[in-house]
# Entry
Amino acid sequence: MSHDHLIIFDTTLRDGEQSPGASMTREEKVRIARQLERMRVDIIEAGFPAASNGDFESVQAVARAIKNSTVCGLARALERDVQRAGEALADASSARIHTFIATSPIHMEKKLRMSPEQVIEQAVKAVKWARRYTDDVEFSPEDAGRSDLDFLCRILEAVIAAGARTLNIPDTVGYSVPGQFGELIYRLRERIPNSEQVVFSVHCHNDLGLAVANSLSAVQNGARQVECTVNGLGERAGNAALEEIVMAVRTRADVFGCTTRIDATQIVPVSRLVASITGFAVQPNKAIVGINAFAHESGIHQDGVLKHRETYEIMRAEDVGWSANKMVLGKHSGRNAFRVRLTELGIDLATEEAVNAAFARFKYLADKKHEIFDEDLHALVGEEASAGAVQVYKLVSLKVCSETGEVPYAQLVMSVHGVEASANATGGGPVDATFKALEKIVNSQAELQLYSVNNITTGTDAQGEVTVRLSKAGRIVNGLGANTDIVVASAEAYLDALNGLYNKLERAHPQI
Ligand code: KIV
Ligand code: ZN
# Structure
């Protein structure tokens, strides 16, 4: 049976970034984009250029860095939005503009305050504006899942005539259920004249936990592009998880009759990179990328797998990249091997100075930890990769005391704008004491929203990766720290978040 190509459109950098607290810097977006390209994603939606200068610059940077995937920018159906998207994508090897306008009665009446005729007119104009920049134009009727079928047919027919090549059907609020959503795609394809000239795409949200099921039902009814995100990141409950879509289609090719061009062995490394940059840890029982996804606990299952793997396994862990977690470097590795491996991982440190600093940290880590994995390298270069940001706060030294029956305390020295300051504090535990000592010096008035520790690889000598999320004046930032000592990693993560806040607030708006 010949299989159709299913286009994988990744929107981790756009819809994924809309998860509260998941905002990414330009450098972080480029790092993730390079990994998505390496995984052979067809299309990378890099952001929403009209939203802010930062978004514009991120899309531009991704467009310049990526050669083997199409880079897409989102635009409302407004001339300025489309123009900003076109400009941000000017240097892309292959560019797509994705324009959208809402089509459900509630959105048209209450949000847009436009009549259905005005919405069609605006959609047609937006597609024509976009075609000035690229032939590759995608149109989305936002909230299609709650839109009227006749109206959807009219607007989609009009945008095809205006030059749209991909029609994306979003279930914006995650309201649809699989049978109904699949039927919607079937009916649209059946009723819209010239529907065979375009690709039908779907974009499902997970409010009822049905994003993947709805997307797959659409594929069974002729959709040939799925919009999805790594780890299912995204607005509210998230989007359809890329890894689940790709592996469902691959494992059940008999049902879906499609293939993707994804290199599945990159799935776990990309998942880890996204989790580490956004601070959104993957739940252990998450399909494909959760740490337990291939772990067999029950004796009956273990016995079966040992006798014949397929008794309880429908996919192989190594096929999705679990074995890609290989030891790459050790304490005797040289600077050149280190640099080559970074390049292979898509990590591009801006300056020689940054490579030297990362290499020094690598040597220090290799002394404490025998095996250095790819994930360690990603964590290790995190600081250097954000070299563009001002590092106002730096950890100089930390001493903590934690003893049964005693109150934990921390003695901390840090530098603020290059000037050393020290403080002591007690706390409920060594991490609490460390944060209190830090705040005695900084007095940031930021609110701690999240503190989480994950081991980057396995074993008691593994690096602990700490995420600290702080909020202040409506801005939320994540800070990351990685160290074999989790208290030091915690202090580094807290300082990283403070530096993030400084760059977002004080530097941009000195009055806050
Ligand atoms: O969920 C949604 O409707 C969107 C559109 C912009 C496609 O993200
Ligand atoms: Zn969305």
Observations:
- Residues 15, 170, 172, 203, 205, 235 surround zinc ion (ligand 2) (CB under 6 Å).
- The chain has a mean pLDDT of 90.
- The longest strand covers residues 393-401.
